[in-house]
Amino acid sequence: MEKLTNFFTEVMKKYLPDPFVFAIGLTLLTFVLAILIEDISFVDLTSAWGNGFWDLLAFTTQMAVILAMGYVLATAPVTDRLLNKIASMVHTPKMAIIVATLVGGIGSYLNWGFGLVIGGIIAKKLALKVKGVHYPLIIAAAYSGFTFYGLGISASIPILISTPGHFLEDAMGLITLSETIFSLPMIITTIVLLITLPLFNAMLHPKDPKNVVEIDPAIYADKPRVKLNISEDNTLANKLNNSRILAYAIGALGLLYIVIYFTNGNSLNLNILNFIILFVGIILLGTPARYTEHLADGIKTISGIILQFPFYAGIMAIMAASGLVDTIAKVFVDLSNEQTLPFWGLISSFFINFFAPSAGGHWAVQGPFMIDAAKELGTSLAETSMSVMLGNAWNDLVQPFWILPALALSRLKLKDIMGFLVMIMFYVGIIYIIATLAWSYLL
């Protein structure tokens, strides 16, 4: 296993470019494939690309907000104390890898933006504390927990199709969360992955100390925050900036709305998720000034999303306008029957996610075709939808776009951690394939 990991690590170091370069290359590749396979003119394709470049601007904002505000939650004093307590109980490199995976995974299950950040933070803390930890691996292990978001309460596709008014409601109706992420097959899958993935990641740790790359404390140690000193500036403005009364009042108002929202029978969606983490964050930070201070730090983690998401929106526009996504999906659907459609949906989703890494946008281009196929073959709509979600979450392990926050927090390059993520991708793929086939044939 170590030799195989080293092989992939060396390959990635030699040939894998930075994420933005990857997005540019993927754009050009999509152009070429659409022209060759779909026989569409270059001018028409360029128009479709440019017209769709900003189509996901609202969704980009939602993603940026959920990540930046997730950072605030992950760096709140109460969270920081909890992470320090967890780190103080870890004393060996392999246990550090296990803990980083669990924290990143549980955090991502609750909220993907929160998990992306808290995983990176605990990985840094453990790398600084535990001697002999291979730093690229612990960052990769913490990031690997991101795959749990596809099984968790912020999974975009299950949340979307359970929300009244979603764009496929006429074709498939509403699919409740009890049929998708809270179904027995997905609960079992979550438990199995939560137990085995940390152990698998620990097995990837280099046995030879000479191959271990440790964190450099001088470079990576957290910088102390500037403390706000109210006593030196007793002006009304400063009192308001640091007022706990204001923070708790607006926080309580936000919590009241959340209660009213769910009491009225509304479903979980991205907007209410962002609302929750915003007002919980305000309460945890305690003052308006502290919240804005932490949020300013969090903004640094979203630069890659703001830059690259329009490029992926353009890629998705090419895929949709040319019919390329239908062609890819149809190849797999034509191989399917009632039992195997979810399996081929999982596989096709994995490949499509390279071109459309947003689960919501991904579903917009692949969902209609998959639902039509499921209705024609008599396959469960819930299972078919979850197969696309799992394929998305599986591919995200090696999709450079979502790794950006981990790279920003760790100050590593994509090529430093991708070799480990390829190995993890193979393992998680086995779990998801078995889960999908078991749901079709056994459950």
From TrEMBL:
Entry annotated with the keyword Lipid metabolism: no
> Where, by residue number, does the polypeptide cross the bilayer?
20-41, 53-76, 96-123, 135-161, 181-200, 245-262, 268-289, 301-321, 341-365, 420-442
Instruction: State the protein's name.
Output: Short-chain fatty acid transporter
Entry-linked PANTHER family: SHORT-CHAIN FATTY ACID TRANSPORTER-RELATED
List the Pfam families hit by this protein, alphabetically. Answer: SCFA_trans
**In which domain of life is the source organism classified?**
Bacteria
The keyword Nucleus appears for this protein: no
Q: Which UniProt keywords apply?
A: Membrane, Transmembrane, Transmembrane helix
